[in-house]
From TrEMBL:
InterPro entries: DedA_domain. The chain crosses the membrane at residues 12-35, 47-67, 88-109, 115-133. It comes from the Bacteria. This is DedA family protein.
């Protein structure tokens, strides 16, 4: 089990990178990494929770940015559920953490030109709650 001997500093950098990549279309399991890291380094709870939330939110905002700079083609104006996202607006990004739909929500929010700041705040809140629940399970 020598390979499990991860220093807190290298583990925190790894969590930041993994959480960022997990928020993109690349597959990732940042929740499992957070859980394992906290089992090894429970004293790093606050730093780990902050870094995975920041990293995952930055990845989501990268998707938002990509959507923002997609051209608004006429045929895309007829997307199903477009009106629902426009109606709910940035609070819909509380679900940005959800598998499969989270990336699409972030991309769509950018494409719909929803303001970046509320999108970022709602996205961060949803992601924080998810990681907080994972972190709590690791400490119990």
């Amino acid at each position: 089990m020598e390979w499990l001997n991860v220093t807190a500093e290298s583990g925190l950098w790894g969590l930041l990178a993994a959480s960022f990549l997990s928020a993109t279309v690349l597959p990732g399991g940042s929740e499992a990494l957070l859980w394992g890291f906290l089992k090894l380094h429970p004293g790093e709870y606050g730093a780990a929770l902050l870094l995975v939330t920041v990293g995952n939110t930055a990845g989501g905002m990268t998707s938002w940015w990509c959507g923002r700079y997609l051209p608004r083609w006429q045929r895309l104006e007829r997307l199903p559920h477009k009106e629902k996202l426009e109606r709910w607006g940035s609070p819909a990004l509380l679900l940005a953490w959800a598998p499969l739909i989270g990336d699409a929500l972030c991309l769509a929010a950018g494409w719909l030109r929803l303001h970046w700041l509320p999108c970022c705040l709602f996205m961060a809140l949803g992601k924080f709650v998810r990681y907080w629940l994972v972190a709590q399970s690791a400490l119990n």
